[in-house]
Design a protein that fits this description.
Oligomer: single chain
Low-confidence stretches: 1-8, 11-17
Length: 91
């Protein structure tokens, strides 16, 4: 079962290895984690936020356009990701 997060950030209920999961309109699926990856759905509005762009830049530095999960992978701890997205959801 998925973890409930404050605000608009939601986790997927299915395993991250399933690549054919639907993404609701207005959201982007990302995989987060340093070792074990977990799939999260984030609002597209987060893409304009500097703190989320920092996470995207980190992903670009590490993976370029070759993401091992088949989707956008953000190489940070899940705790950091939850903290950043929770702050964005409150603003």
């Amino acid at each position: 079962m998925g973890l409930r997060l404050p605000s608009l950030v939601r986790t997927s209920i299915k395993k991250a290895s399933s690549r054919n999961m639907e993404v609701p309109k207005g959201f982007l699926a990302v995989y987060v984690g340093e070792c074990e990856k977990k799939r999260y759905l984030v609002p597209l509005s987060f893409l304009n936020q500097p703190s989320f762009q920092d996470l995207l830049n980190k992903a670009e530095d590490e993976f370029g356009f070759d993401h091992p999960m088949g989707g956008l992978t953000i190489p940070c701890s899940q705790d950091l990701f939850i903290h950043v997205t929770s702050c964005l959801g409150r603003s």
